Amino acid sequence: MTIDGADGGGQLLRTALSLATVFDIPFRIEDIRGSRPTPGLKAQHLTAVDVVSELCDAEVTGAELGSDALTFRPGDARRTSLRADIGTAGSVTLLFDTVLPIGAVADRPVELTATGGTNVKWAPTVEYHQLVKRPLLADWGVSADIGLERTGFYPAGGGEATLRTYPSSPSPVELDTRGALERVEIYSKASEDLADRDVADRQAEHADAELEDAEFPTEIRGVEYVPARSTGSSLLLRGVYEDTLVGVDALGERGRTSEAVAEGAVREFTAFHATGASVDAYMADQVVPFLALAGGRVRIPARTDHVRTNLDLVARFGSDCHLDRGVDGTLTLAASVPPSRK
């Protein structure tokens, strides 16, 4: 099949690589990231292509920096141990997102160790993966874990993490409701050079105070200072509901106070809580490939561009995954298991 890459970013390519390998369907993607200010393959996209092509012994053409077209033909082999160096602060977790659906249906364990950015902009942090996505995947029958060896902030990166997946039987994703909020857990960390300014402590304590003011039950679960090549900090708010988990990430930046980081995260969590959705905005598009594999229903907070492009793409691979709008305005992603996976 031929995919128009102009309407999506790197996620469109990553999802295509995942599903092409799972369903054994070759594809050609053209005008890659064509609507972006700097189109074509960047280092982190090329790393995803290289990793998946090595994983399944694919035949690939166009895998070069800056390339605007790529052809990918998956092979029959499945390698079980891989390493990748993005070479920049490109996101390690987005690379893991590409491999997770493949590992979920593999008949042998898969291990991928990657270096790059673990806590960077425009991507879920490694803590989000460990504390929100991995437990949700476990509920859906996907067995995986992520170990963090070293944190990597922007711009130097240099973080290292390992994804391990195990033979699984993905089950339908059923998250129509979330139940009552039990607590909001706070996880804060900063590079060691920020310890004398108490950055991680201030992020956590201010988030705790802001959440209490909003009458949310809170608990500070982790405050740490870690070695890193670049100065940085991150904050994760994990909402623990009766039936689900949600996460809100925030990153420290030069010129932005720890208190401002905390306030931004709390505002985002408060806005999510008001929607009544069962997964956060990050997970809303990340769950689409798993719906394509196993079917199910998930209530989401909004129809983002990432959700839209992912839905269009999985339909090309034979999934009937679609978006239902309830009479009360709520949005639910729904899908049955495609014939090739039954």
Annotated CATH architecture of the largest domain: 2-Layer Sandwich
Share in helix? 25-40%
Q: Which band does the percent of strand residues land in?
A: 25-35%
Structural category is alpha/beta
State the assembly state of the protein chains: single chain
Order of helices and strands: EHEHEEEHEHEEEEHEEEHHHEHEE
Please compute the radius of gyration using only Cα atoms: 19 Å
Question: Any overview of this molecule?
Answer:
The protein is α/β, with parallel strands linked by helices and 342 residues long. The chain folds into 4 domains: 1-77, Translation Initiation Factor IF3, CATH 3.30.110; 83-170; 181-273, Dihydrodipicolinate Reductase, domain 2 (2-Layer Sandwich), CATH 3.30.360; 276-342, Ribosomal Protein S8, Chain: A, domain 1. It contains 9 helices and 16 strands. The chain has helices at 10-23, 43-56, 92-104, 126-139, 199-213, 258-273, 281-286, 288-294, 305-316, and strands spanning 2-4, 27-30, 59-61, 69-73, 81-85, 110-116, 143-150, 159-166, 173-175, 181-191, 218-226, 233-241, 245-251, 296-300, 322-325, 331-335. β3 (59-61) and β4 (69-73) form a beta hairpin. The longest helix has 16 residues, at 258-273. The two termini are 22 Å apart. The mean pLDDT is 95. Keywords: ATP-binding, Cytoplasm, Ligase, Nucleotide-binding. ATP binds at residues 97, 282-286. This is RNA 3'-terminal phosphate cyclase. It comes from Haloplanus litoreus.
Label this structure with key terms:
about 350 residues; 4 domains; four-stranded mixed sheet
